[in-house]
Amino acid sequence: MLFNTIDFAIFFPIIFILYWKVFNRNLNVQNLFILIASYTFYAWWDWRFLFLIIFSSILDYCVGLLFLNNKNQRKRRILLYFSLAGNLGMLFFFKYFNFFINNFVETFRFFGYKFDESSLNIILPVGISFYTFQTLSYTIDIYNKKISPTKNIINFFAFVSFFPQLVAGPIERAHNLLPQFQKTRVFDYNISIKGSQQIIWGLFKKIVIADNLSSVVDGCFSNPELYSSVTLIIGVIFFAFQIYCDFSGYSDIAIGTARLFGFELIIIGIISGLAGCAVDSVIGATVQGIFQCEGACKKITEKNKHCGAPAKHLRGWRYLENNMVNFLASLSGGFVAIILGYIFLILR
What we know:
Layout: H1 6-21, H2 27-43, H3 50-67, H4 73-110, H5 128-143, H6 153-161, H7 174-177, H8 189-222, H9 229-260, H10 268-291, H11 293-303, H12 311-347
Helix pairs in contact: 1-2, 2-6, 3-4, 3-5, 3-6, 4-5, 8-9, 9-10, 9-12, 10-12, 11-12
């Protein structure tokens, strides 16, 4: 379920009314209701992937309990490594297995070796990066002694799967969000107004700006040979605005929605999420641009055999023209990732 859908427009007011009018008398019952609502929100896409959230939650909840009264630094480090291996291993398998297999094959093809490409038909679970790193923040904060392990399994599971920021961030640190599940929440009209305004602003950035820029950007990236250099540069600039408004819009909606339920999400989550998004974009654009160049050049050379230009000359210029978008996107994205990452480390 996404924020800019009819499904969410029906889901949200029902959950909001029940949360404040029916389940507001008991904190544990209210947190349990958030947990059920969050699982329903995620299962609306595909209920089978709920098992991945439950697996991550159980893993780090148990690791957190093992940290209790454990002062042996070596054992604490082993517990941390166990949590990292379990969570990052699952993330790597679902998100990057086919990516690395495909690019491994393309790398050897580039140097003249042929391999049979065999990739698994793996569906990427929505939001897996966000809830994986969020649950990891819990064990990391315990290891760094910023928080104490919680024994309340409902609070912890609700923290991991909190639906406003489950599928698109921002990623929250455990020492900020988890304690909010342990405190009684009271409806505040002024905060709700601010939250509603932030939701509207986020929807504007997502639907009006990002989605409309998407059609222009997709045309430039899918057929770069049809456009002039100036148009391609404008397309790259539009792509930067599209990525920012898309991610920032979702983050604004998430923060505003959380406020309506009495929670405050921190701005560092947006910065870390944008940095991660930029890094993913840079890796994808760079690797694909490099390893697809040979096939692209061959197609262009065959297409333009009737021209009098030498094959080498044509191949070189066509390669530069068709990969300029990827190059500029990677270069600008790299600088953005470095700057945002640096700001994140300072603010942290």
